[in-house]
Amino acid sequence: MNTVEKHLATILSHTWWVLLLRGLAAIAFGILTWLLPRISLATLVLLFGAYTLVDGILGMSAAITGRKEHEDWWVLLLWALIDIGIGILTFLAPGVTAIALLFYIAAWAIATGMLQIVAAIRLRKVITGEWWLVLAGLASVVFGVLLMAQPGEGALAVLWLIATYAVVFGVLLVILAFEVRAFGRRLARP
């Protein structure tokens, strides 16, 4: 492993908890959505906006932490900025229709999913378990495409799909976090 890869691995092993928090936030969002199936569209908009803002802020932290050690830190930063942008857009237009919300969510899922796949491919020689990030990215892209294919159903009609996606994505990020943590521990051994 070269010096750059070792630095990136060290950063990832120190910030594994950011992936864990992002995964737990996604799981919490999904469970709250399951437990409150009769929530209004406005509440769904606010929950989604809050989730994407938190996810984006945590992602930005991870990207900025690793910017000096790895040239591909910008992929993580772009992913985080898309999350933040969609979160802000969601709060600026809370009266958005169900179809517009679906397209917000679908565009966000496709864009972040593609960036997650790119990040996993770029990091495949540095980390183990990168395929978990590929699976999370693929889940995001498939979710976004499904939402775009069925916009007439409305946000409340796909509530269970949104919740399921959030929980699956969150579980995949939690698994990835522990894989990264274990990898960092293996690197730290003399």
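the 2nd protein, sequnce then structure:
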Amino acid sequence: MGVEDSLMLEANSIDLYYGASHALRDVSLRAELGKVTCVLGRNGVGKTSLLRAVFGLERIRSGKVKLRGDDLSGLAPYERARRGMALVPQGREIFPRLTVLENLMTGFAPLPRGQRRIPDDVFALFPVLQGMLRRRGGDLSGGQQQQLAIGRALVQRPKLLVLDEPTEGIQPSIIKDIGRALKTLASRGDMAIVLVEQYFDFARELGDVFHVMSRGKIVLSQTAAEAKDDEIRRLLTV
């Protein structure tokens, strides 16, 4: 598979404003099938704004977002989901009063009726969920809720899976479980993964490409082979 065949997401020269505040400045990003593209940076540098632009949750001033070469301009978030995009939001945002099963079923929303079933790989990757289907989401631990949020995204059968700081507030054992799951998903080669993180050690184990953001711009882009850990760590602590 050539690079163009594997290219799933292109965000080209994105500029985004909140009022007079210039939140994203000429930001470009690509994500390929079978690879984990990491977006790193401290709080407030524009990482979540970039995701909101990609998913159509904020209107961009200039630039283009493309999925499999198709321009997404003008498409609402739910239409982008139908095209194969899924987001695991920061803070998980599961429904605390719904059961685990009901939370997973909310992932059916963008799917045609014939595909509305929970894929087996959700429970293969996160077996703890299978034993908790009747428990309410709000009764789960933070780590279990994070697994549920990822499982809900996988129910959509995405071609592009985007995770916004999935390690935030999660115990180390479940961080390892999430890392193993993402490695498995990437190795299948039929999904592009974008991982937004502050925790560099987690991203370093998974990432194929690293982009570091500062003040609304990407200030460093390196492949895993090129990555200089000390340089990246310095940018994350400045």
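The beta strands are 7-18, 21-32, 36-40, 62-67, 70-71, 85-88, 160-164, 192-197, 209-214, 217-223. Residues 108 and 117 are 8 Å apart (CA to CA).
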